[in-house]
Amino acid sequence: MTGEPTPRRRRGRPGYDQAAILRTAVELFNRRGYDATSMGDLARELGLTKPAIYHHVTSKEQLLGRALDDALDELTAVVTEAAEDPAGRSAYERLRGVVRRSVEVLVAHQPSVTLLLRVRGNSGVELAALDRRRRLDERLAALVADAAAEGALRDDLPPPLVSRLLFGMVNSLVEWYRADGAYDPATVADAITTVAFDGLRPRGDQAS
């Protein structure tokens, strides 16, 4: 032992770490709008000084980027797993799985997904998020096309349109779903997959 004092580790104000600041920022962005929210607004919401927030993050844009990544990372993983499925499942099975799991992702990350659906490409961070969303649409459209080629879905609808409609149905949950409401995530996932895929069955398979 040298007898020298151990350097003190820098710490933020007790009770606030990066995750807590991010949660509050997302709530504030959704309530006030990202562009209308300043770091000063966030500091007042948290009861901190602006320097205390900058101890954890470098900018408002960094908070936005982390929130959008939170919304997109798991959804990207779900779509990637379905697109690169090594288990030999049919495209139809993988497509249904994507829709169902997308509901689970949205419910688990509803504030971040809500923020994602409101971005308009006003910054580099927002443009990057929109590009990731477009690539997800393209990969889902490819799965739709493969399922139609299998004969499991009707083939008279453009796959990119079907992809947008499927994601749109899932994304509509941000407008009304509440974790303490009447429906649990499994019930909602069942309902969406049933409504979507029964309506997409080939015409010869539908009841007259």
UniProtKB/TrEMBL annotation:
Keywords attached to this entry: DNA-binding, Transcription, Transcription regulation
Domain called HTH tetR-type: residue spans: 15-75
DNA-binding region: 38-57
Protein's UniProt name: AcrR family transcriptional regulator
Organism of this sequence: Actinomadura algeriensis
